[in-house]
Amino acid sequence: MSASTAAMAASTGKYGRAFWEGQWRGSGIIFVALFIVGYVLYGSQPGVGASADALAAFYGGHRTRILIAAAASGLNILNLMWFAAALRTTLADAGQDGWGAAATASSAAFGGMFLVLLTVSAALAYSIAGSGNGALTSGLNDFSWALVVLSSFPRAMLVMAGSFGLWRAKLISNALFGAGVAAVVLGVLGGTTWVSGGVWAPDGVYARFVWPLIGLVWVVVASRVLARSPATRAGW
What we know:
By secondary structure, the protein is mainly alpha-helical. The protein contains ten helices and no strands. α3 packs antiparallel against α5 (63-93) and α6 packs antiparallel against α7. The radius of gyration is 20 Å and the shape is globular. The protein starts with a helix and ends in an 8-residue tail after the last helix. 38% of the residues are buried.
C-alpha cells in the first residue's frame, strides 16, 4: 500500500479523520452539558464572608456531592480544551491562525484557573473545612470567589477570539458577530464585580449566573457553527 493510499484509508476509516472531527467539534456541547451537571451537583456555595457555621455545613455536609462535582468538572476541562482545539483548527483552515492561537491561549488560561478553583473546593470539602480552622476555610472560600471574577478575562478573550475569527472567516453572520461582541463586553464587565454586596458582588447574581449563562450560550452557538463548517485539511 502506497503512502497516499494509507493516508486516505486513515482519514476515511471508522476511526479516521471524519470520526475525530465529529468528536472534537461536538465537544463544546458536551462541555456545556457537563458544566450544568457539575453546577447542579456542587450546589450553592456560601458567599464572601460567610459564617463559620455556613461554611462547615456546606463543605462538611455536602462533602461527597462536592467531590463528585469536582471530578466531573475536572474531566470537563478536557472537553473545553478539545473545543478550543477544534475552534483553532477551523480558524487555521480559514487562514485566521492568529485568532485561533488566541482561542488556544485563552482556553488554557481559563482551564488553569478553573482547575485551581476545583482544587480549592475539593480540598475544603475533603479535609480543610473539617479541621476546625475557620480562618483558613473562610479565606479559601473567598479566594475561590475571587477566581470566579478574575476568570472573566480569559473567558471574554475566548469569546472574542472565536467571534472575531469566525466572522473574519465568513462563517457567521454580522448579527451573530454583533452578539459575540456584546458577549465580550459583558464578559469583561464580569471582571469588575467587586462591590461588597448585591448584584455586582463577586458572589452576586451577575458573576454567579448571568455571565456564566452568556458564556455557555456562546459555546453552544460556536459549536453548531463548527459542526457545519467544512474541513479543508486533516487536523486530527
